[in-house]
Amino acid sequence: MENPEFQAYRLHAGAAGEPPQGRYDTLTADQLSAGDTLIKVAYAGLNYKDALAQAGRGGIIREYPRIGGIDLSGTVVYSADPALAPGQEVVVHGFGIGVDCDGGYAEYARVRHDWVLPLPAGIGLRDAAVLGAAGYTAALSLHWMEHCGLTPAQGEVLVTGATGGVAGVAIDILSQRGYRVCAMSGKPDAADYLRSLGAQEVIAPPDLSAGIKPLMSARWAGVIDSVGGPLLAHALASLKPDGVAAAFGNAGGADLPTSVIPFILRGVKLLGINANSPMPLRRQVWNKLAAEYRPAHLDLIARVIEPRELPQALAAMLERGSTGRSIVRYS
């Protein structure tokens, strides 16, 4: 069984009260977390969770050393599962990779075979990484929103935190599906970028200093929200009757200062999106990403970096200094 030597960006425990320290270590495959499938990594995504982990915030990683990177695409080297043939192109995200076990920021990754998803026809390794956990979350949000009856005929869909990776893919998919999309962003210079992805309108976040009314003027048929907190409460109060919101982030805070009024007077629906889905649902949503949910502007969303750029790029995410979806290239 192969045991190659390779480079990995690994987080080590910092001194008491200090954040973890990232180092480039030379490892062999048998030094990786346990698993029965070895993957040669082609690309790994940069996610907000990875940035928090590098900064030692949020208690993301509890055991060190740890190779970060919560999603990756690559080719199978070997696997205990005969359905995963050597050379097969695959994607892995969730299941604790990059957090509870070693993740994608290395030339090789070792995982359990039942965490590995063969790529559907039409999606290559680069596009799979640009999508990654972020694209899957965007597609999963729309999957459940449409399951609840959302259609383009019902009206506008608001996408908050619009310059983020999930939001960018969401705008692209919604536009391809025929929805009218309004992108909300606090970055005025990103308006042209957001329109290029398919947003018909770009607006700034509202001033919420005066508080949030239980009900506001009904505008949105749907909301895809990566911010949470008061902004999500404001969006819920602005949904049309039978509107639906999908929530998966808390960059704006974990508290939700709302009431039952939008739910009982307008019948709105709030969907919690957990991207760590069981494999049958993953296959269904990835197949949609290869077909009816296929984005048209991944080249605009993507920024490809080299491994040496990884620490700085992760730090920039926490300073709101990134737009779209960054991926690190290993092969």
Describe this structure in words.
- The structure is a single chain.
- With 331 residues, this protein is an alpha/beta fold.
- The chain is built from 9 helices and 16 strands.
- The strands form 3 sheets. Strands 3, 5, 6, 7, 8, 15 and 16 form a 7-stranded mixed sheet that branches. A 6-stranded parallel sheet has the order 11-10-9-12-13-14.
- The longest helix has 23 residues, at 125-147.
Helix-residue proportion: 25-40%
In CATH terms, the superfamily of the largest domain is Medium-chain alcohol dehydrogenases, catalytic domain
CATH topology of the largest domain: Quinone Oxidoreductase, Chain A, domain 1
Span between N and C termini?
A: 21 Å
Can you tell me the overall shape? globular
InterPro entries: Acrylyl-CoA_reductase_AcuI (IPR014188), ADH-like_C (IPR013149), ADH-like_N (IPR013154), ER (IPR020843), GroES-like_sf (IPR011032), NAD(P)-bd_dom_sf (IPR036291), Zn-ADH-like_protein (IPR051397)
EC number: 1.3.1.95
Protein name: Acryloyl-CoA reductase
Keywords: Oxidoreductase
Question: Which terms summarize this structure?
Answer:
single chain; 331 residues; alpha/beta; Quinone Oxidoreductase, Chain A, domain 1; Rossmann fold; 2 domains; 7-stranded mixed β-sheet; 6-stranded parallel β-sheet; 9 helices; 27% helix; globular; NAD(P)-bd_dom_sf; Acryloyl-CoA reductase
